[in-house]
Design goal:
Elements lengths: L3 E3 L8 H16 L21 E7 L1 H5 L2 H13 L1 E7 L2 H9 L5 E4 L2 H9 L3 E17 L11 H10 L4 E3 L5 H13 L8 E3 L4 H11 L3 E4 H7 L6 E5 L6 E9 L9 H11 L2 H9 L2 H4 L5 E2 L4
Helix pairs in contact: 6-7
Length: about 300
Amino acid sequence: MQPRMFRCPVLAAALLTISVAAGAAGFARGSTSAVKARPLTPALVPDPSWVETLTLASTTSTLDSGFFDVFIPVFEKKFNCRVKVIAVGTGQAMRLGRDGNADVLLVHDREAEDRFVADGFGVKRLDVMHNDFFVAGPKSDPAGIRGLKAVDAFRKIAAGAVLFVSRGDDSGTNKKELRIWAAAGTKPVKGRYVESGSGMEATLRIANEKRGYTLVDRATWLSHKKEIDALDVLIEGDPDLVNPYSVIVVSPAKFPGLNARLATQFADFIRSAEGQAVIRDFGKDKFGAPLFFPDVVK
């Protein structure tokens, strides 16, 4: 997926001019011969359009739901910066972090997050927000799973002549789904289990087209349910379907070239009263219900 760039205006920085001028003056004072400072060449004049950049690797649901369209401009305006969002599955986002290709992560796979930090790639895992997963399927519900617990529903899906559409992309959603299959002790046979290899929105659309069952997060479902005409939410509210999100600053000890200062500001802001208020209110006006629930400032 191509990175999504969010931009904000910033005052032109004069740091480079000051640094070069101060260096020249210092050299002149420390030398036995006078040195006359020369004007900066055009290549050294600070670009007034330059802004500090933060690279954020995150899940597709935070982008597809429109959350970043609301949250990122608030952060950019407050900190006079630009955020480059790379929206991929959680597994891929963490690989970007392990390779030093992201400053900060917003992800949703607790086991993988703890391992990421334990391996020294993250400073600390910090709670941010949560929503939950739904099990969606054909309105006629041929597998008869409506209202069941997720594990029991997955057993019936595996036993029935129905289709299940998986993301199959090592995302947090995909890992949650695989854990439910493991708890169910079964899985659909080949031909009745399709891996999209895509994000949540694309996977939901495939399930809708093929009249299949799928696991979908609340934010993506509410954002696109008007376009999904063949499916209903059949299971929600199961404690096994809670979906927590965390923020992790990628370790500057591992990768000194990363923007750890701005990454820390992002982590602090998304957990602050102001950031948590954006999370709490997002979606209420457009969808009639929040898409995420804050976990730091309720």
